[in-house]
Amino acid sequence: MLVLDAAATRAALPWDGLVQALGDMFAKGCVMPVRHHHDVEVPGEAEATLLLMPAWQPGAYIGVKLVSVFPGNQMRGLPAIHGSYLLSSGRTGELLAIVDGGELTARRTAAASALAARYLAREDASRMLMVGTGRLSANVVEAHASVRPIRDVRIWGRNSKKAEATAKELDLKGISVSVATDLEAAAREADIISCATLSSEPLIRGDWLKAGAHLDLIGAFKPTMRESDDRAATRASIFVDTREGALSEGGDIVQPLRAGVITENAIRADLFELARGTHPGRTSPDEITLFKSVGAALEDLAGAVLAFEANRSKA
């Protein structure tokens, strides 16, 4: 049995290979039961979340991810997300690998957004705004840079020191990285805006989005959380990773739906349809696109299989 720590997991999941693996899995599909989602009380702090996410390919692989999200860890200087992935044989049930869940989650989440950007962001998109300074931020920038010609990156966060630290962490050849002090100004200039926060209030306003912009919403994984306003939902062509997940958990979709601002028909396609070519994605240079992801067990399975097979081939 393989045990892959964070470093080994990262090394086994290069962006080009991971984006492709996710695309292949969305195109082929797998069995993906509804995930278990539990609120966990943390005395004196915001509630934590426990996620159990199973998925399998009949006769090939079966896996389950166990993840905890503790928002209060940000105040401790600790990652908000911890977890492990258990990958077993789909024929015998034998445990094949334990993969670092935090690294797998960070990389597959970023890769899913990059996969969406491959269909939704303009091919010449070069300016990116990263809203958020958590573990995901650097991964999201790197993943997008693997699918679009990013040349200028701005990092914005409520804590300027954390934004500066994230900017310093990024060392991408040929890409200028700086801290954005004016969120609105940076958003108005960006070709791609990615948000990876735990915000419960809109950060990005729809009126800030320029023609041809792509808005990538990764955080706000509960109906009560939100990173964009109603105006963004009405101005943009909306796409999601999975319809079921976005319609039940993604506040950026759920809240405007409940308010009657949009209907379910506003969702043009999900990643299954984009990967299978049944929807073309972006249809014009000036179209504003919005992609909302809440995560799917399919993505974890694709990443875990890629990591396992990459390390098995070295044995």
TrEMBL record:
Top-rank taxon: Bacteria
Keyword set, alphabetical order: NAD
Gene3D superfamilies associated with the record: NAD(P)-binding Rossmann-like Domain, ornithine cyclodeaminase, domain 1
SUPFAM superfamilies assigned: NAD(P)-binding Rossmann-fold domains (SSF51735)
Pfam families hit by this protein: OCD_Mu_crystall
Keyword NAD listed: yes
Recorded family membership: Belongs to the ornithine cyclodeaminase/mu-crystallin family.
Protein name: Ornithine cyclodeaminase family protein
Organism: Sinorhizobium numidicum
